[in-house]
Amino acid sequence: MNNLVYAIESIDGLLVVLATGVFNTHEFFALWDALAMKSAETGIARAVIDIRGVFPPHSEFDRFSVGAYAAQLFGHRAKIALLSPAEHENGLIENAAVNRGGILCVFGNSEEAHAWLAEEDGPGFPSP
Fold it and tell me: How do 14-22 and 5-11 pair as beta strands?
């Protein structure tokens, strides 16, 4: 497998990221950075990131780092759904992000992710 490869598109008011390849913390940070830039350019504050085609992180520290970086970069300014196979998910990415002020949730299927992204949020957060 190759390194992490991703594409970001704006579709129906969402930023949609499709990622494939082998997980690498620094490349995932670059994905977050590119998503933040695209969000700033488009004004879209909701995103779904499909990592179901990514070979999972090797360590718990990698998972923690990815979630913490997302919270640092986006805080409450974006609502992000992460699509991941259930067998690869242990909650650490989501917990690291949420415990640091991020709005991120991990899902196993896109229907649940899109339904969550479509939900109204509290004051100050952009509507879908």
Answer: antiparallel
